[in-house]
């Protein structure tokens, strides 16, 4: 299985929806479409861009130093994250150089690992999606050079 | 729980055992957790990662001062303020002061066990501050004015209907009592405005990473990110045990923590906060970030050679998830603030010793917690050590003192046992159980038939039963253990036949005595060491192996002696082998051909065999050689005996036993074999009492040439 396939499979395993596109332009269209769908359904949506993806966990790594970006992944009912397939690393330990560079050289103050929509099992261990964060996570995965 | 007396604690346990919702929930959880954890760990090298976490955390514990200095310098260079609080009350005061300095009145809080540890909410409440828990489970228990009953699932003890009741009170609106999804949305709706209104957010931190002054927070619901983003002030509270050197350490631990806690590959959100992040609501445009690191006794613990391993705890809650006692009584009876096996230990270290004294008795010693711990903490050993420390500080309770006096001298001990055999004569049945006594005198112990001492101890028969093996292949010294020597000599007689048939010469050193495990469990450390030395001396004569039929003795002789005596026990411990492993490894079918029957035979994996010694395949392979082995559910869960545990907590012991026997009955087996006389006492007595058509035997009896004599 390629990293891209593993990422998609594992993100979907935690209830994220993965939309695979072939170019940045298509990504823009996909985002617009998703936002329009949300609007039609009467749901709020917002979009952010991931810096990296982690295949083993289906995680989007988002630079959320900017408060607006952070809130864009927290407050809306539908959260859309655009991720370049070429930015996917295999597993958690492989993200260390990126994080270290960000936090030392870049003096970054906030990095978010986002793995699926917000969830809980606090009532009778029944799994429920959409607690305090998004009810739905849409990952627009851009395979530009595929 | 807050009970400081045994009587009060037992009352609490009784009421928990009667809570049928709790029992059903935790039963289901115990089974499902095991399966989902296995799945989650199948993708990673769990043991290697756990060792790595242990090593990193141990190194951190030894380097606390330097780590703190580095963390503080890095975090403060990024605009945070780092505080070190010596005590719980100091931490509370610091946080109250931060609130006052920033004109805070409303606080939103995400989950923090450290805040529970220091009683932060009560403190801030008294100061007139409004603190709202925002984690769903924490909010529910806050509405009920109680503490969490699990470190990861705070409200696991409550039904959806009870939650709906609380939500009705909180919102003044009728709530759905069936639909959990709707109840979850109530929390979203009710709490969203609070995030916006709050002037301060309080969170915990899972990791404090020194190299970059970063705190990492692991959550699922998304409340944690709102808590640390929306209000202008963020206070993160963490014990100094959360300090680790590098990002790599955090990322390694992140591969284990979510898998062990909730069987997730990673939780929904992991946030890395390095200093004061942009914040529109703050007057400076930057978050007012305070990181309060709590000592509260931790730096002393870091210097303790045994207890420093508690620094490895990542608060995943796995030790509760697999604990057979937690499964029966729930977290409110299996912890004070912290829950589960680590909760017992931390109650002693951070909170009330009187409460810890009660709690630490309530460990059956099965070792299930140790096996799943994210940091490989030897929790049963720590709990045992706490018993010993409390016993030496407060003086031992009478039963422990009497046992200690009786067992320190082998001759006295064995004379006493022989006297008891004489004294029990009028009440012994012919079938090896105590029969002719009114049940009333047993009280809560009456859940199983109690074994009678055998008419003749094995040691008294030895000279007449000693087999003569011509040109032996191996020489084995037999360690009998008290229970088999005096109650079940038939186990040993069967073993002699098996060993003789396999061409093994057996010696029986007469100076051997109790292995000392019951003494260690009672906290009588000195006498435990004394009898250990007696046994090492008794087995000085040369032999290839020291074989015992008791899993508990075997694990104590091997690991307990090594811990207590170090090098003095090295040669001895290296030779110790449990009976099943010995026969399986050294008496293969070509050496010891067995006649196989078609009888359906189930297996009970004794805690000390499967976990303490890691012996899993040998006994099952042997059963397959002799009979039709039928697997049963939860073979490796504790039977509830736990040595003195069954006498101290008969109500819990009885439930564990019933569960075990029900699983065996469901397998369709007509016979149950095991490797431990303690489990035999429990399960044989339980099956007899319940009139179940299940024979209980030691595996040696199943294997003996000529088949089973009784059962």
Q: What can you tell me about this protein's structure?
A:
The complex is a heterodimer of chains A (146) and B (711). Chain A is of the alpha/beta class. Chain A has a single domain, classed as NagB/RpiA/CoA transferase-like (Rossmann fold, 3-Layer(aba) Sandwich), CATH 3.40.50.10420. Chain A has four helices and ten strands. In chain A, strands 1-10-5-2 form a four-stranded parallel beta sheet, with helices on both faces. In chain A, strands 6-3-4-7 form a four-stranded mixed beta sheet, covered by helices on one side. Chain A has a two-stranded antiparallel sheet with strand order 8-9. The two termini of chain A are 15 Å apart. By secondary structure, chain B is of the alpha/beta class. Helices cover 51% and strands 11% of the residues of chain B. In chain B, helix 34 links the parallel strand 17 (671-674) and strand 18. Chain B starts with 5 loop residues before the first helix and ends in an 8-residue tail after the last helix. Classes of the chains: A alpha/beta (146), B alpha/beta (711). At the A-B interface, helix 3, helix 4, strand 7 and strand 8 of A face helix 8, helix 10, helix 11, helix 12 and strand 9 of B.
CATH architecture of chain A: 3-Layer(aba) Sandwich
Q: Count every beta strand of chain B, where a strand is a DSSP E run of 2 or more residues.
A: 18
Q: SS-based structural class of chain B? A: alpha/beta
CATH-wise, what's the superfamily of chain A?
A: NagB/RpiA/CoA transferase-like
Distance between the termini of chain B: 42 Å
Helix content of chain B: 40-55%
Radius of gyration of chain B, taken over Cα atoms and rounded to an integer in Å: 28 Å
């Amino acid at each position: 299985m390629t990293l891209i396939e593993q990422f998609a499979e594992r993100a979907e395993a935690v209830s994220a929806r993965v939309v695979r596109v072939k170019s940045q332009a298509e990504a823009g269209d996909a985002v617009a479409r998703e936002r329009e769908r949300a609007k039609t359904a009467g749901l709020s949506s917002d979009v952010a861009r991931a810096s990296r993806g982690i295949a083993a966990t289906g995680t989007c790594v988002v630079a959320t130093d900017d408060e607006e970006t952070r809130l864009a992944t927290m407050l809306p009912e539908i959260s859309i994250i655009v991720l370049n397939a070429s930015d996917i690393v295999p597993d958690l330990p492989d993200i260390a150089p990126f994080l270290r560079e960000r936090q030392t050289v870049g003096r970054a103050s906030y990095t978010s690992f986002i793995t699926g929509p917000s969830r809980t099992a606090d009532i009778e261990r029944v799994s429920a999606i959409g607690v305090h964060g998004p009810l739905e996570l849409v990952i627009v995965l851009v395979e530009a050079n595929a | 729980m807050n009970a400081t007396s045994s009587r009060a604690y037992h009352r609490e346990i009784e009421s928990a055992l009667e809570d049928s919702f709790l029992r059903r929930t935790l039963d289901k959880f115990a089974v499902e957790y095991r399966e989902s954890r296995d799945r989650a760990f199948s993708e990673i090298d769990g043991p290697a990662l756990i060792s790595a976490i242990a090593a990193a955390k141990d190194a951190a514990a030894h380097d606390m001062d330097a780590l703190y200095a580095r963390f503080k310098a890095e975090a403060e260079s990024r605009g945070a303020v780092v505080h070190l609080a010596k005590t719980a009350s100091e931490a509370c005061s610091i946080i109250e002061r931060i609130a006052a300095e920033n004109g805070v009145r409303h606080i939103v809080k995400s989950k923090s066990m450290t805040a529970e540890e220091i009683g932060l909410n009560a403190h801030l409440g008294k100061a007139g501050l409004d603190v709202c828990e925002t984690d769903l489970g924490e909010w529910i228990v806050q509405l009920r004015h109680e503490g969490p009953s699990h470190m990861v699932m705070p409200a696991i003890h409550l039904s959806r209907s009870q939650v709906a009741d609380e939500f009705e009170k909180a919102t003044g609106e009728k709530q759905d009592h069936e639909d959990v999804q709707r109840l979850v949305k109530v929390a979203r709706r009710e709490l969203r405005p609070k995030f916006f209104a709050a002037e301060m957010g309080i969170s915990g931190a899972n990791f404090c990473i020194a190299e970059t002054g970063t705190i990492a927070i692991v959550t699922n619901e998304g409340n944690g990110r709102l808590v640390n983003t929306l209000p202008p002030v963020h206070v993160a509270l963490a014990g100094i045990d959360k300090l680790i050197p590098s990002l790599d350490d955090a990322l390694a631990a992140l591969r284990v923590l979510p898998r062990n806690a909730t069987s997730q590959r990673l939780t929904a959100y992991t946030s890395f906060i390095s200093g004061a992040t942009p914040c529109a609501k703050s007057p400076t445009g930057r978050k007012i970030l305070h990181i309060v690191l709590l000592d509260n006794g931790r730096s002393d613990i870091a210097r303790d050679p045994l207890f420093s391993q508690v620094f490895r705890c990542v608060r995943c809650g796995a030790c509760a998830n697999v604990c057979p006692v937690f499964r029966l009584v729930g977290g409110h009876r299996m912890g004070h603030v912290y829950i589960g096996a680590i909760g017992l230990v931390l109650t002693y270290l951070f909170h009330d010793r009187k409460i810890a004294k009660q709690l630490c008795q309530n460990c059956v010693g099965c070792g299930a917690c140790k096996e799943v711990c994210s940091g490989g903490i030897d929790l049963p050993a720590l709990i045992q050590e706490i018993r010993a420390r409390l016993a030496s500080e407060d003086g031992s309770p009478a039963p422990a003192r009497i046992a200690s006096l009786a067992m320190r001298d082998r001759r006295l001990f064995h004379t006493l046992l022989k006297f008891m055999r004489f004294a029990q004569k009028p009440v012994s049945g012919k079938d090896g159980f105590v029969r002719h006594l009114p049940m009333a005198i047993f009280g809560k112990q009456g859940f199983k038939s109690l074994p009678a001492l055998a008419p003749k101890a094995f040691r008294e028969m030895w000279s007449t039963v000693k087999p003569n093996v011509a040109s032996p292949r191996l020489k084995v010294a037999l360690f009998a253990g008290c229970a088999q020597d005096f109650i079940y000599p038939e186990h040993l007689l069967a073993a002699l036949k098996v060993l003789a048939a396999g061409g093994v010469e057996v010696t029986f050193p007469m100076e051997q005595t109790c292995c000392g495990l019951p003494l260690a469990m009672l906290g009588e450390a000195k006498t435990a060491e004394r009898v250990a030395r007696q046994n090492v001396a008794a087995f000085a004569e040369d032999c290839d192996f020291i074989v015992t039929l008791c899993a508990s003795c075997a694990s104590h002789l091997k690991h307990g002696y090594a811990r207590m005596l170090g090098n003095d026990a090295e040669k001895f411990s290296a030779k110790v082998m449990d009976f099943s492993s010995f026969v399986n490894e050294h008496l293969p079918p070509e050496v010891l051909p067995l006649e196989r029957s078609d009888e359906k035979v189930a297996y009970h994996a004794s805690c000390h065999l499967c976990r303490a010694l890691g012996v899993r395949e040998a006994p099952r392979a042997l059963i397959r050689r002799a009979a039709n082995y039928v697997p049963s559910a939860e073979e490796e869960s504790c039977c509830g005996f736990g040595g003195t545990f069954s006498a101290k907590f008969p109500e819990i012991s009885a439930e564990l036993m019933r569960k075990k026997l029900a699983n065996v009955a469901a397998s369709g087996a007509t016979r149950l074999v095991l490797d431990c006389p303690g489990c035999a006492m429990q399960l044989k007595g339980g099956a007899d009492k319940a009139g179940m058509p299940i024979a209980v035997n030691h595996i040696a009896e199943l294997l003996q040439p000529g088949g089973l004599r009784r059962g």
